[in-house]
Here is the input.
Amino acid sequence: MTPLEVVQSEKAQLDFSESMTYGDYLHLDELLGAQKPRSPDHNEMLFIIQHQTSELWMKLMLHELRAAMDDLAKDELSDAFKKLARVSKIMEQLVRAWDVLATMTPPEYSAIRPYLANSSGFQSAQYRCIEFALGNKNAAMLKLHAHRPDLLAQVLAAFVSPSLYDEALRLLARRGLAIPASHLERDWTQAYVESDEVEQAWLVAYRNPKQHFDLYQLGEELTDLEDAFRLWRFRHVTTVERVIGFKRGTGGTGGVSYLRKMLDVVLFPEIWKLRTDL
Here is the structure.
């Protein structure tokens, strides 16, 4: 059969003059029209699409993270596990995306850098919401979004709310594990402070996985998530160093030096420490 005969034999719909199309549903005209290079350089399209697709993945990540936190608050752990596993898979997509950007050589990036002005991924409101949702709270970062009240409201909402880890600890407390009061009702805008008592609570679940299997599984879902997040950060710093070396970032940070400091940030410290103490 010819290709046309195959399509006809399948009775595929070909007339969409009065029906919604794939492009209509996905708003592809707007989506594919959002790439507007400012330089004459061929490689700027890669740079734009890399960051736009990352923002789309981050939008989905926030959608899943927020829902997972709601599930934890309602003791619906199986639903939370599904969403957290999806977040980890999204992080894997973001990690692999650095491989594409790494095909840009230093001279290619240098050709488009002047056209970026001070714009930088450091200014991503969605990334800031993700970091706050994962517990890396820093009030100074709110200033980045002060020029956009709508974005500031979104980031501020994540800043003042309990993090994913805070919700996990509140769940442990509801299950009768000894979480100190200082870690259950606190100023959520402050960075998390590691606690030996919290580690002991997690150790109860890890030493008795059959008795506390859902809490044990929660600990491993959080481990998977932070593991993937660490890989993303590592690939970020190595890609930046490969493309721009130790030049300062367009957003004003030290570039590689700043990103290397971020590698030391631990989101769920007791879950990592308990592995030594088991």
Summary: The mean pLDDT is 93. The two ends are 65 Å apart (CA to CA). The chain is about 65% helix and 0% strand.
